[in-house]
């Protein structure tokens, strides 16, 4: 993953934020929308693209475009920086391949302990019954 190439492929759009905020919300476009075309990116290898498409399937459009927004700050520049950080964090987390689980055998002592507990419970329940003469 080449961050400088990917950064140059980002496209930004400033939009008016929603919610409370008085006059500032009504006149300033501080919300930043980042769009990133995953399929046509030159900063990612084909294997990385395939992995990202499977892991980020719910966040991608049908055309394979990732759309992220940030409207936390009143400053458009700060929101732009935050959305870039958010995008790179999302991409890095999605590119991590989890280790394969190695199956282990259940230890004999654990099996014996479970069987002994079952026997104890069985005896306890047998003692609750009325005696059969």
Brief description of this entry?
The chain is an alpha+beta fold and about 130 residues long.
Structure in words:
There is one protein chain. The chain is α+β, with helices and mostly antiparallel strands and 133 residues long. The chain has 5 helices and 3 strands, in the order H-E-H-E-H-E-H-H. The chain is elongated. A 3-stranded antiparallel beta sheet has the order 1-2-3, covered by helices on one side.
Distance between the termini: 80 Å
Assembly status: single chain
Percent of sequence in beta strands: 5-15%
Mean of residue pLDDT?
88
Distinct helical segment count? 5
For the secondary structure, the number of strands is 3
Which bin fits the share of residues in helices?
Answer: 40-55%
Outline, from the CA principal axes?
A: elongated
Largest sheet: 3 strands, antiparallel
Rg of Cα set: 28 Å
Adjacency order of strands in the biggest sheet:
1-2-3
What would you call the structural class?
alpha+beta
Low-confidence stretches: none
From N to C, what is the helix and strand string? HEHEHEHH
């Amino acid at each position: 993953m080449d961050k400088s190439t990917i950064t140059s492929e980002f496209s930004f759009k400033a939009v008016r934020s929603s919610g409370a905020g008085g006059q500032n919300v009504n006149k300033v476009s501080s919300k930043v929308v980042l769009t990133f075309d995953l399929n046509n990116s030159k900063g990612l290898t084909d294997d990385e693209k395939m992995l990202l498409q499977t892991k980020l399937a719910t966040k991608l459009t049908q055309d394979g475009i990732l759309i992220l927004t940030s409207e936390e700050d009143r400053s458009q520049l700060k929101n732009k920086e935050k959305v870039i950080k958010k995008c790179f964090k999302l991409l890095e987390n999605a590119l991590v391949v989890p280790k394969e689980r190695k199956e282990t055998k259940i230890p004999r002592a654990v099996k014996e302990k479970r069987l002994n507990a079952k026997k104890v419970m069985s005896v306890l329940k047998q003692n609750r019954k009325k005696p059969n003469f």
